[in-house]
Amino acid sequence: MPADQPRALITGAGTINPLGATVAETWSGLLAGQSGIAALETDWAEQLPVRMAGQVTADLSEHLTTRELKRMDRCGQLALVAAREAWQQAGAPDVDPERFAVVIGSAYGGLGSTLEQDRALASGGPRRVSPHTLTRLMVNGPAAWVSIDLGARGGARTPVSACASGAEAIVQGAEMIRSGAADVVIAGGVDASVNDLVITGFSQIRALSTRNGEPRRASRPFDGGRDGFVLAEGAGIVVLESEAHARARGAAVLGAVAGGAVTSDANDIVAADPAMQRRVMQKTLASAGMQASDVGFIHAHATSTPVGDRLEAQAINAIFGADVPVTSTKGHTGHLLGGAGALAAVVVVQALQTGQLPGTMNVEALDPEVNLNIVTEKVHTLAPGSAPAGLVNAFGFGGHSVALVITAS
User: Fold this and answer.
1) Residue 88: how many CB atoms within 10 A of its CB?
2) Active site residues
3) Cβ distance 288 to 378 under 8 Å?
4) In degrees rounded to 5, what are phi and psi of residue 39?
5) Among 50, 73, 185, 323, which residue's CB has the most CB atoms within a 10 Å radius?
6) pLDDT band of 384, cuts 50, 70, 90
7) pLDDT band (50, 70, 90) for residue 367
8) Are 15 and 26 in contact (CB under 8 A)?
């Protein structure tokens, strides 16, 4: 990053996901080696080939008003809960609304409301359709609701790049800070697509694990016996601030987005291109002015698919070698789709703050084709001074490749 550009500091973080409704609950669950994945006990799941998922179990009525619950899709609800936590941790900074922006990505937005209201129309006619249908199903709904709630008038953007959406949102937010377009940006990702259509769609391409009898052991990144990912829902949000704005108000700094990159494979609508995965990591290091040796650990995308994990491992090894500690917390939470990369960023912030890196769950026998230092213990203690930065990978259908580097300060 050029020395004359403002730094994008992280002053707040929030999440709601299958492990917890706050960063503290999530972090505790990760370090304890807990899983938020469980069997689907609902009627609509009985005939599905996959009957498990990572669902948010928190009662949203304890966090949101009745009006908010009625008007918003679950996707927007989760984003708002996480954004409010991040905003409060940041100290609810006093900022010029015109210099305050929101960037929240999502893969599917209000798809749950789309399906619900389509079924209402089919079964009961037009009178059964909610007047809130259109605003619930908008993919930009989460960003819009957060901007309205907190009064951000500097833009409400919505990157839609499949499972890379949340990570791309953080890269975009940091770029707004560095370019001088904003002083404060709330950035992250969210999805709430645990439904029959999405589960069936992913099942049809054999992307999901079918270990229905042992849901907590189903998501197993880098394990030799992995057979697919586990669908999950949730949100990850960070508050980004220019260094000048944060220092002027005496904000507590959690970290900094030192660099990031977004590339497109231009290869295949589903299959990843490992060459572009390497390229996005190289571009990220260059944007941060770093060498590979400056990165102390990596939170891999590693969803637990047989091919995807192997290709990413090869790409990481080509850039960083086989010694850097690598983890993926999707064994704990499942795959949050558009929220995955943003939750990974929150995990990296916590790891840099605490010196503890959560391990990768369910690695019983490492895939022999994965030549990496996969963290398999519950908690890996980072040696003092050994981890000045952590890297996040996020990849999505359509050839979306995103990486970002986060430092402790």
Assistant:
1) 12
2) 163, 301, 335
3) no
4) -65, 145
5) 185
6) confident
7) very high
8) yes
Token reading at 285: 């290091």
Decide if 142 contacts 79 (C-beta within 8 A): yes
First to last CA, the chain: 14
Burial of 55 (0-12, 13-18, 19+ CB in 10 A): buried
What residue segments make up the domains of the chain, in order of their start?
8-248, 259-407
**Fold agreement (8-248, 259-407):** yes
Q: Say if CB 262 and CB 168 are below 8 A apart.
A: yes
**DSSP tag of 329:** T
Tally the C-alpha atoms within 13 A of residue 29's C-alpha that lie toward its C-beta.
22
DSSP 293: G
Which residue's structure tokens are 């928190």?
A: 58
- CA quadruple 267, 222, 340, 43: dihedral positive or negative? positive
**DSSP codes joined into one string, 175-236:** HHHHHTS-SEEEEEEEE---SHHHHHHHHHTT-B---TT-GGGT--TTBTT---B-BB-EEE
What band does 235 get if pLDDT is binned at 50, 70 and 90?
A: very high
C-alpha dist (Å) from residue 113 to 46, 73, 82, 169: 21, 6, 20, 23
Answer whether CATH 3.40.47.10 is correct for domain 259-407.
Answer: yes
Domain 8-248: which topology? Peroxisomal Thiolase; Chain A, domain 1 (3.40.47)
Among the listed residues 52, 56, 75, 340, the one whose alpha carbon sits nearest the alpha carbon of residue 199: 52
Quick check: 243 and 258 in contact, CB under 8 A? Answer: no
CB-CB neighbours of 92 under 10 Å:
12
pLDDT-derived band at 6 (thresholds 50, 70, 90) equals confident
Rounded to two decimals, the pTM is: 0.97
- Is the pLDDT at 185 greater than 90, yes or no? yes
